[in-house]
Write a structure and sequence with these properties.
The chain is an all-beta fold and 256 residues long. It has a domain at 68-204: YVTN repeat-like/Quinoprotein amine dehydrogenase (Methylamine Dehydrogenase, Chain H, 7 Propeller). The protein has no helices and 20 strands.
Length: 256
């Protein structure tokens, strides 16, 4: 599945050169499948909306429309600065949706009800190209899009930043929400459990191996840093940062 600047979402079969499904939208979009392949999400930055579709009925109206609003932004400026979404990722259970943004915060949403549960802070967003560049009034994408990811058990979120550091957020204790969605309720603000040195430049891509206890990050200098978990389960209560050691590449960057 792909979303493009021509305001369409296309469903592809790798065995055929033409798309198998076409969904026309009012603006360019981001797309993500859940782990079961039954539901997919479509994010529209122009409207600050996330549309949830049933794969079997993708040509019909979405069964859930989520509004991404953060009341805490109104305490910083008025009108509040818009949120620029750059990535979507479902948790392994399909219960949560991780919304990666180009600014200094990412969000976790209840994929079943649409509540904005948590706001992940403490990193430097990739909206700017350099640390000494001031933030513009209008939000921009920058080089954001691949820098935040779930761990395989969906108990932690890992993400990179403009300063090259890798942040780890513990999201196991998010408060449950019930009832109608109230956009005036502030999400739980979560600071990093650990920060690790990653790259001399922006850490633009962070991904976890779904089978092995290994995380890989990449930056503009094309060097990969591999963070390998020791033989300790992520479900233990020890601090996450103490379970990680860094393995630097021993050869030139082209061999990474």
């Amino acid at each position: 599945m792909s979303g493009s600047m021509d305001k369409t979402v296309r469903l592809w079969d790798l065995r055929a050169p033409q798309c198998r499904g076409l969904l026309s939208l009012p603006a360019p979009s981001l797309v993500a499948y859940d782990t079961t392949g039954v539901v997919f999400a479509v994010a529209l930055n122009h409207y600050s909306r996330i549309l949830m579709y049933d794969h079997a009925n993708f040509d019909k109206a979405p069964f859930l429309t989520i509004t991404l609003e953060d009341p805490t932004l109104a305490r910083v400026s008025f009108p509040p600065r818009a949120i620029y979404m750059t990535s979507l990722a479902f948790s392994s259970s399909g219960k949560y949706l991780l919304v990666g943004c180009s600014g200094d915060a990412h969000y976790i949403i209840d994929a079943f009800e649409g509540h904005v549960l948590a706001k992940l802070e403490g990193h430097v967003g990739l909206e700017r190209r350099r640390l000494d560049t001031p933030i513009s009034i209008e939000p921009q994408r920058g080089c954001s899009g691949e820098e935040v990811s779930w761990t395989p058990d969906s108990k932690y979120v890992v993400g990179g930043g403009l300063d090259g550091r890798i942040c780890v957020w513990d999201v196991q204790n998010m408060p449950p929400r019930e009832g109608p969605v109230d956009l005036t309720v502030s999400p739980m603000r979560i600071q990093p459990l650990a920060k690790m040195d990653g790259h001399p430049g922006p850490a633009r891509c962070v991904r976890f191996n779904p089978r092995l206890a290994m995380m890989a990050t990449a930056g503009a200098e094309l060097v990969c840093h591999h963070f390998v978990l020791r033989c300790v389960s992520l479900t233990e209560t020890r601090p996450f940062g103490s379970q990680i050691r860094q393995r630097m590449p021993t050869k030139s960057p082209k061999n990474c």
